[in-house]
Amino acid sequence: MHQEVLFLIFRRMRMPLIVLISAYALSVLGFVLIPGQDDQGQTWHMGFFHAFYFVSFMGSTIGFGEIPYAFTDGQRYWALFTIYLTVISWLYGIGHLISLIQDPAFQNVIRHSRFLLQVKRIRKPFYLICGYGDTGEHLENVMSERYFNSVVIDISPERIDHLKVSQLRLEVPGQCADASNPSALRDAGLENKYCVGLVALTNDEDANLKAALSAKLLSPKLKVIARAETRDSEANLLSFDTDVVINPYTQFANWLAMAIHSPSMYLIHDWMTGIYDRPLSEPLVPPKGTWIICGFGRFGKAVCSYLETEGIRTILVEADPELTKAPEGTIIGSGTEAVTLIEAGIHQAAGIVAGTNNDADNLSIVMTAHALNPELFIVGRQNKSRNTDLFRAAKVDFIMQPGAMMAQKIAAIMMTPMLVDFLEMARKMDDEWANILISRIIALTGEEHPVTWKIKVTANAAPALYEELGKEHAVTLIHLQCDPRDREERITSVPLMVQSPGELPVLLPDDDYELHVGDRILFAGLPKARNSMSWLMNNYNALEYVLTGEERPSGIVWQWLSKQSSSKEEASKVINQA
Amino acid sequence: MNLEKVIFAFFIVLALTLNFGFFYGDIADPRVHHVYELYAAIVVSLIATVLKVGDRTHIGAVLLATSLVADLQLIVAAFIWGYVVYVSKTGLTPENMSSIISMSAGALVANITSVILLVAETLMIRR
Q: A14 vs B43: CB contact, 8 Å cut-off?
């Protein structure tokens, strides 16, 4: 911590300090020993008090004059010597201190201790993110957007510098460190009681493996999400109970297959997990005819197998079929030149996937394909986030950014696990179901991006609601969706899923679903709907108003008064009836 | 033999001996306590403090603490001396002298602790 900095300063400053003390001691002693003269011309010896006083101001300012009496020549002689002595030792000391501050090793220690302090100061649940690459950056954006804390480590100092200058809403502590080093993970808060999980996203399979392993060993309660590119490391990660393993290639291919199979379903996924600031993405309708796939690497292979399960015919274009073990009938070439694409039958094809790991090649494929067949549905794989503008300008119908997609998926897993369950279940529904849901959401939110949130009917999370459930009024979903200012109005929200303890989750529950203690409900809607719902769950009076239409007096005095008046009314009623 | 250890022990022991030299003698008699000896004790004690700083072991921390106590006591003693001679001008009366010497006696105890710790550490190493 800061002690380390202090120790380093003192150890390095030991010599200058000793030099300074010695210079002062020698100068003071000289003035005490050398005889002077007082104003009567008598011999006079300077005391330690005067000597120390004189040397103190002489050393720092070269003097206010000779005190208390004018010096003799002998004293001046000594003063001349001590001026240079003290000034030089001051310069030596200060120079040493400055060079120490500029020392890169010292700077590292300072940076490190500042990082430790930042991590220690986090008083909310946070995730430890290893690897601030493309995916990490997207993930940070999504997380800080939702005010979810995190700590980042990356092996490259440039990436950490990039993190420091990026304008995130939250302060994200970042440190240049190796994720495969357990003590670096510990410094980044792995064993901190607020740390809820670790995300291993580095480019190095081995580092991801080690980070996940350290997390599982050092604090087993953590949720561990790891990225794996090969089946071997995927199996390895799963063997020690890594909670979620994400393969960017199959993930990406899976989403593409979903988009072709059911565009509405893809749109639901994208809306629910996307970044709120972005405008709503338009529904896309990728055609179902023959598709040309350029690049048969790990990504191309995953896309092919997913498209085949959808029953879509694919034609492969690959520059090096032997290396990638491409099947027979593969067109040889990179796809960037017209000849290859024509050979692959671009004029008859319905869509093309530019899926190499090189953005320049992908852009070139996109532009050639567009020139040859303007009707073609073009899917472009964008590897680097800095090329976003190029891909937008190149008229790509569907830009797939593996980094962004992984980040969306991971953020959903981290922050709203219930949303992940919902999306899993939703995938099993048909296209029509998805269309209905899309139109319901659009009808409510219009152009704005919907957000999703979860409520839990427990004494802690929803005190007002919890108490009300024990009383005579049944609370249904419709009540939760009333505007607490005017119960005739509805807030803009759609209940997506209800999960009662011990029962199977229900998709799109009806409005008259009756709430029970322990229910968890997932909603989609506008942020202001989320706010008014949390008001209802926490404020007894607001909930009472929504349920009964009556405003309950809030203070004890008013409650007593209203009780008095209502009992009077009842009494008069009784009298009248009688 | 390690030159660093020699210098280190030299200053710690010298701080004790000078301190003792100043302290030794009738507590109220200014003739047996010389100001030069107090001065030397302060300077050596300060140097010993700087030498002790930066050691991160537990015994190092206690050594530093004893030295800081000795510095504090001696500097207060010097401050009293300067005050009675130059500011209040009461001079080195027996009362004043005995308060100066009792401050230095406190510093002496701290310095003795420091030397005991030094000896203990040396014995622990057994080399």
A: no
Q: Please determine, for residue A406, whether its predicted confidence score (pLDDT) is greater than 70.
A: yes
Query: How would you write A157-172 as a 3-class SS string?
Result: HHHHHHHHHCCCCCCC
What confidence category does residue B87 fall into, taking pLDDT thresholds of 50, 70 and 90? confident
Spelled out in words, what is the top-level CATH class assigned to the domain A2-102? Answer: mainly alpha
Q: What angle do CA A565, A570, A576 make, to 5 degrees?
A: 125
Substitution target from B10, B11, B38, B43 for chain A, most A beta carbons within 10 A: B43
Tell if the CB–CB gap between B47 and A10 is shorter than 8 Å: no
Which helix (H) or strand (E) covers residue A35, if one does?
A: strand A35-37
**Residues in chain B closer than 8 A to A7 (CB atoms):** 54, 56
Closest approach of A8 to chain B, Cα-based (Å): 7
How does pLDDT run across A95-131, given as a tens digit for each residue? 999 998 898 888 888 888 889 999 998 998 999 999 9
- Mean pLDDT value of segment A329-358: 83
- How close is the nearest chain B Cα to the Cα of A455, in Å? 51
CATH 1.20.58 fits B3-125, yes or no: yes
Alpha carbon distances (Å) from A97 to A8, A9, A22, A61, A154? 11, 8, 18, 20, 31
CATH architecture of the domain formed by A442-548:
2-Layer Sandwich (3.30)
Single-letter code of the amino acid located at A529: A
Average pLDDT over residues A278-302: 77
Q: How confident is the model at residue A278 (pLDDT cuts 50, 70, 90)?
A: low
- The hierarchical CATH code for the domain A123-246 is 3.40.50.720
Whether B53 sits inside 8 A of A21 (CB atoms) is no
Domain A123-246 in the same topology as domain A2-102: no
- A-chain CB neighbours of B35 within 8 Å are 47-48
Task: Give the residue extent of every domain in chain B.
Answer: 3-125
Q: What is the CATH number of domain A259-415?
A: 3.40.50.720
- pLDDT(A578) > 50: no
Residue A406: name the closest of A263, A242, A235, A246 by CA.
Answer: A246
DSSP string computed for A284-340: -----S-EEEE--SHHHHHHHHHHHHTT--EEEEES-HHHHTPPTTPEES-S-SHHH
Q: Does the pLDDT value for residue A248 go beyond 90?
A: no
| Residue A264 buriedness (CB in 10 A; 0-12 / 13-18 / 19+) | buried
Contacts of A47 in chain B (CB under 8 A): 35, 82, 85-86
ipTM for the predicted complex: 0.78
The residue ranges of every structural domain in chain A are 2-102, 123-246, 259-415, 442-548
